[in-house]
Amino acid sequence: MARLAQTAGLTDIQQEILSTVRDFVDKEIIPVATELEHRDEYPQQIVDGLKELGLFGLMIPEEYGGLGESLLTYALCVEEIARGWMSVSGIINTHFIVAYMLKQHGTQEQREYFLPRMAAGEVRGAFSMSEPALGSDVSAITSKAVKDGDEYVLNGQKMWLTNGGTSTLVAVLVKSDEGHPEGTAPHKSMTTFLVEKEPGFGEVRPGLTIPGKIDKMGYKGVDTTELIMDGLRIPANRVLGGVTGRGFYQMMDGVEVGRVNVAARGCGVAQRAFELGVSYAQQRHTFGKQIAQHQAIQFKLAEMATKVEAAHAMMVNAARKKDSGERNDLEAGMAKYLASEYCKEVVEDAFRIHGGYGFSKEYEIERLYREAPMLLIGEGTAEIQKMIIGRRLLEEYRLQG
Q1: Alpha-carbon span 344 to 260, nearest angstrom
Q2: β-strand pairing of 169-176 with 144-148
Q3: For residue 8, what are the CA distances in angstroms to 20, 72, 305, 335?
Q4: Three-state SS sequence of 330-385
Q5: Are 180 and 145 within 8 A, CB to CB?
Q6: How far apart are CA 110 and CA 113, in angstroms?
Q7: Among 365, 377, 370, which residue's Cα sits nearest to residue 336?
Q8: Which of 150, 151, 165, 263 has the fewest C-beta atoms under 10 angstroms from its C-beta?
Q9: CA 320, CA 71: separation in Å to the nearest integer?
Q10: Hey, is 400 helix, strand or coil?
Q11: Which residues are tagged catalytic?
């Protein structure tokens, strides 16, 4: 086992789970990832394998058929999967966020109805918060729900929906004015709806359309889509938690654990980039010796390994903080910010070590070079993370008197 990115204090069960996932990644994901990515092909066989391993229910409580594991266990599994192919970790992440939101905020009926099937991978989750014009300003959403008898009618357009086509359950954030008079703060007039749908593209249920996959620079294989609601009718019992006006807080709670996930993805991609760089440096010869023997390359490898180790440590700390029941927005923001920035830098250094060959699609590093930028914006940009970190630091270090 490699020396980098080790985690102290794991139980035997955690170590067994990680060993199983690592073996699956090495045998089932890495050998086919680049080929599937170049074809932008959904990795159905890999997803089926993850379902058999029980990973879709990793954090779902045992009473609902899941494994009942911690956020730390989940994050370490994500790190391993992203090391193989980041897109696969994205397929799991949105599912995990919706399951987490149901576990934390759903009614008992909602938990009993959805979680057992989510644990089995029969129901696959996605969540939808962003819209075409709002960027990071969630309070500016325009999608709306209007009450009509025992139902709500939803209208609006959502954007950047990971697993939009393959999912069968979408947690959608919209404005809902019912019970929230004009002048109510925007974040207090938002509601999360649990929208069931058929997988695929086009009109997937009356009033709900998934137009098709968005063509992306990287992060291929996984389907990223828009979501268009035009008179979509949803029964009142599909309001997450049964009460309107709580959607913003529910979504932010989900995004908070999602940031730990993105940090874990950054750690996994960076670790793979380091592995590729240190391996290539020992195979390539220039001026009569391995390029690994040149001091300039050794300096790069030293910097890369240090960044991999630092990002991993911060990610683990953020996960453990959440598992302890403490507020972790500061730690999650720091971990997501550092891991995504370091990932980009480690991937670029590995790319440089490969020289001209790094520009060739025959080499895996070319794929990583296109994938890393997504982590800079996913689950909140670096600027958003710094705002969160700065505000929390001022809370902690506020001057008295």
Answers
A1: 17
A2: parallel
A3: 18, 12, 18, 18
A4: HHHHHHHHHHHHHHHHHHHHHHHHCHHHHHCCCCHHHHHHHHHHHHHHCCCCHHHH
A5: no
A6: 5
A7: 377
A8: 150
A9: 7
A10: coil
A11: 379
* Two structure tokens written together for 62: 């045992």
Token pair 């979509």 in the structure block, residue: 232
Q: Each residue of 58-113: pLDDT tens digit?
A: 999 999 999 999 999 999 999 999 999 999 999 999 999 999 999 999 999 999 99
Which pair of structure tokens corresponds to residue 120? 């089995």
- DSSP H helix total and E strand total for the chain: 11, 10
Length of the chain: 401
CB 199 within 8 A of CB 166: yes
Structure tokens at 349: 């250094």
Within 25-107, residue ranges assigned H as helices are: 30-39, 44-53, 71-84, 86-105
Any idea which residue has 């709900």 for tokens?
208
Q: Give residue-wise pLDDT tens across range 345-370.
A: 999 999 999 999 999 999 999 999 99
Q: Tokens at residue 311, please?
A: 């990002």
H or E stretch including 2?
Answer: none
Cβ-contact 154, 141 below 8 angstroms: no
Amino acid at 257: V
Q: pLDDT tens digit string along 251-303?
A: 999 988 889 999 999 999 999 999 999 999 999 999 999 999 999 999 999 99
